[in-house]
Amino acid sequence: MNGSNFPADLASLDLVEEIKRLKKELNAVILAHYYQDEEIQEIADFIGDSLDLSRKAAATDADVIVFCGVKFMAEVAKILSPEKKVVIPDFKAGCSLEDSCPPDQFAKFKAKHPNALVLTYINCSAEIKALSDIIVTSTNAKKIIDQIPKDQEIIFAPDRHLGAYLSKVSGREMILWHGSCIVHEQFSEKELVKLKVNHPNAHVIAHPECPESLLSHASHIGSTSSLLKFTKDHQGEEFIVLTEPHIIHQMRKTNPSGKFFDCPFIDQAGCTMCNACPYMALNDLEKLYAVMRDAATNSKLDSNWRNDFGGGEIVLDEDLRKGAEGSLRKMLELS
Ligand code: 13P
Ligand code: SF4
Known about the structure:
335 residues, binds iron/sulfur cluster
């Protein structure tokens, strides 16, 4: 339960049934990223990568979007569907890439390259989206870069590893911001090599947020949905998975006879550490229930509420929302 410290009376509730009931009451849709807990994946109406989730959020006819992912993903839902109520189980579910790109510093960096087009990975704040020309995800980034005139200077932010990978595959030099993902950066190359030796027939599949030292071992590199498709297309085979390990739940469902090995993190003392995304892990079934319960209770109140577990409704200043919408709509148009 990730330490939510819920009162004992919650333990007596059938949370799955309660969430289903609240979903009807609120006319809500539950969207979840592949990195969420299995329990959340099982109850979600839709599971996807960042691009799928953005599209779904823009197209849903539900009144309430309950977003199980990290905060920037829920903000994207609000930016694209401002008339909907968007709630999130825990506002502390951030992202190291977002943290690595403070808007004031990024504005100064951008000012140093006045002729550059600002291409930004969706893992960033609404403020950074408002400073950007086009947003990309790891699913559509190459396709979008290929549509930009060859003589156009490009800034790519905030992920330096994804930026370096995209420069390589698209043959375009880009001016890179220096952010990174604390999850994809930490898989141990030493442990990866051990896994490769012990499972010589396994495909190494990797998310492009990994550094080049890890990507160089991979036979398939892609977004979460691309990795999932690769495993589905290779029934019964073996895979060493270099991305957040909760996606393996879906991989097992779509390839039941496949074998999946996640790569550990090793700390400086040589101890194996948890390799899950600590931000995604903040969401759990209890917090999901609590935010839906409180959305139902607070429906007539000021939208700027937070519950005792850190959940609440996404509220964006309208100028900021409009500023961020342009670069996101451009992405949807080009992908
Ligand atoms: P995807 O868009 O590939 O799902 O990636 C999201 C993410 O946060 C990866 O760390
Ligand atoms: Fe952010 Fe990395 Fe977690 Fe993805 S895995 S949400 S990039 S910290």
